[in-house]
Specification:
By secondary structure, the chain is an alpha/beta fold. The chain has two domains: about 240 residues, Type I PLP-dependent aspartate aminotransferase-like (Major domain) (Aspartate Aminotransferase, domain 2, 3-Layer(aba) Sandwich); about 130 residues, Aspartate Aminotransferase, domain 1. About 35% of the residues lie in helices and about 15% in strands. The chain is built from 14 helices and twelve strands. Strands 1-7-6-5-4-2-3 form a seven-stranded mixed sheet, with helices on both faces. It has a five-stranded mixed sheet with strand order 8-9-12-11-10. Strand 5, helix 7 and strand 6 form a beta-alpha-beta unit. The protein starts with 8 loop residues before the first helix and ends with a helix. The relative contact order is 0.13. The structure holds pyridoxal-5'-phosphate (PLP).
């Protein structure tokens, strides 16, 4: 059923692992809508399924492919990235200790703080690798990593974080939404679980909300995660699962094109007089560049941020003046998005208020550069 394991991930993605649905030998999988599955006369389950909330065949193609792309033992789709992350938190036991980054996806950070407070879970935040090492002098249960991290694209050394986490008795979970399996494979670097908001690059077309977890080992922690999905009920619909599987087929060309454009844009604007800084791990001036070169393969992702000279108002004017970039939250789709991020995150944000977050899509990079040039110029006119 499966292709030879030596095939490149890009080939596997293009063919959706190459599994051929019987009996029609469809080139694309059918949409599986069944919620329940028939028992045989003796009460057994010849189809191997009981009920779609526990395990729907609609998930098989995308879960099989994501397992291969991440090099994991098992994958599980969820109704959103947040549902996937919540399942990890729900798999913890009372009294557990989480160590998480200050800079990470804002909604998840806020949810983690509330969850930890309500469920007697200790939560400590680290700003960098040195603080992570210091916090892991004491035992912990879960270390959360996001790299490159929203919205400044700080880089954390996953292999080092895995060593530290394991020495402290903790599991390492990596939110790998931004680099995607095209550029980073956290499990191969020592992580225990990889999480994605599949709403972003994996689906890639701004038309599905979904999430996924991939585990290195099918252990008791994974069993608790699967229970959190089945019992918590945060399951994806069959049509969304089908769309996600379709989006995954073009993952590699989409993400590679977008990342090549992002690098061009970052290089073009790095010393622009209207900007204080361009934050992109692919630039040698970025703090995390050396580690990024080691742990990201083939590219640095398609997310970057611009810090605009003149503060919050100037940033707002630039965002208001773009014509090709679309003003919207989210990331990872074929169309380029721009967001004046600080005001969106609101009180307590660590995001600089002059920061514009760009999600570079697959448009012609000359058009994107020209658009930003005219917006910076227009924003600076008296
Ligand atoms: C969007 C996002 C999430 C949350 O995922 P949803 O699919 O919106 O629930 C988590 N982490 C990162 C890095 C994201 O970009």
């Amino acid at each position: 059923m499966q292709h030879d394991a030596k095939l490149s991930p890009a080939t596997l993605a293009a063919q959706g692992t190459g599994a051929t649905p019987m009996p029609h030998r469809d080139i694309v999988p059918p949409i599986h809508l069944a919620t329940t599955f028939e028992r045989a006369e003796d009460g057994s389950l010849p189809g191997g399924r009981i009920y779609a909330r526990d395990a729907s065949p609609a998930y098989d193609p995308a879960e099989a492919l994501l397992c291969e792309l991440e090099g994991g033992a098992r994958a599980a789709l969820f109704a959103s990235g947040m549902a996937a992350a919540s399942a990890v938190l729900l798999a913890l036991k009372p009294g557990a200790r989480i160590v998480a980054p200050h800079d990470m996806y804002w909604s998840l950070r806020n949810w983690m703080i509330g969850f930890a407070a309500n469920w007697q879970i200790a939560l400590d935040f680290y700003a960098d690798a040195a603080e992570l090492a210091a916090l892991l002098q004491r035992p912990a249960d879960l270390v959360w990593v996001e790299t490159p991290a929203n919205p400044t694209w700080e880089i954390l050394d996953i292999a080092r974080a895995a060593e530290l986490a394991h020495a402290a008795g903790a599991r390492l979970v990596v939110d790998s939404t931004v680099p995607t399996p095209v550029f980073t494979r956290p499990l191969a670097l020592g992580a225990d679980v990889v999480m994605h908001s599949a709403t972003k690059y994996l689906n890639g077309h701004s038309d599905v909300v979904a999430g996924v977890l991939v585990t290195r080992a099918e252990d008791d922690f994974w069993a608790r995660i699967k229970t959190a999905r089945a019992a918590g009920g945060a399951v994806l619909g069959p049509f969304e699962a089908w769309l996600l599987n379709r989006g995954l087929r073009t993952l590699f060309p989409r993400v590679r094109t977008a990342a090549a454009s992002a690098l061009r844009i970052a290089q073009h604007f790095e010393h622009h007089p209207a900007l204080l800084a361009v934050l992109y791990p692919g630039l040698p001036s970025h703090r995390g560049h050396d580690i990024a070169c080691r742990q990201m393969e083939g590219g640095f992702g398609a997310m970057l941020s611009l810090r605009v000279r003149g503060g919050e108002d100037a940033a707002r004017r630039v965002a208001g003046a773009v014509k090709i970039f679309r003003r919207a939250t989210s990331l990872g789709s074929v169309e380029s998005l721009i967001e004046h991020r600080g005001p969106i995150e609101g009180p307590g944000t660590r995001c600089p208020l002059d920061l514009l977050r760009l999600s570079v899509g697959i448009e012609d990079s000359d058009d994107l550069i020209a658009d930003l040039e005219q917006a910076l110029q227009q924003a600076n006119e008296p």
